[in-house]
């Protein structure tokens, strides 16, 4: 029998090898219980297309499904803004602008999630034009995280709602609950 002196390095290497093996084994095991953790499930992509019916500048109905344009917030339909000391219906104008971008054409919306109102949160396209981005770029919606550069440029050029003053849509909604 050969006797070997065990030192601290040998113990550390053995522990690391065993820990790595256990990690690899358990991280690759598929759960089969009814309460399976859905956080590892692949996102389900939902695509809808057709001629939309608009609700306002960032919400629409498509094939009977409610859709909210992801990453933007447009003035509410009955919201007013101010320009040159006068009030104007910026919510209605935002809706009209989205309508002009669509121009009666079929659109396609891609979504991986819904909001608390069970609306699809989606990026929508009319041809190769991304409607979400265009609404912010043209100044008729503010960025909701995704389009900061477009918002900064619209603000700089004083486009759409940036040509005057306005209450942020989320603030206006809080002050005017349905």
From TrEMBL:
The keyword Nuclease is annotated on this UniProt entry: yes
Signal peptide: none
Key word ATP-binding present: no
Gene3D superfamilies per the UniProt record, alphabetical: 2.40.50.90
Coiled coil regions, renumbered to chain: none
Alphabetical list of InterPro entries matching this protein: SNase_OB-fold_sf (IPR035437), Staphylococal_nuclease_OB-fold (IPR016071)
SMART domains: SNc
Stretches that traverse the bilayer: 7-26
Name recorded for this polypeptide: Endonuclease YncB, thermonuclease family
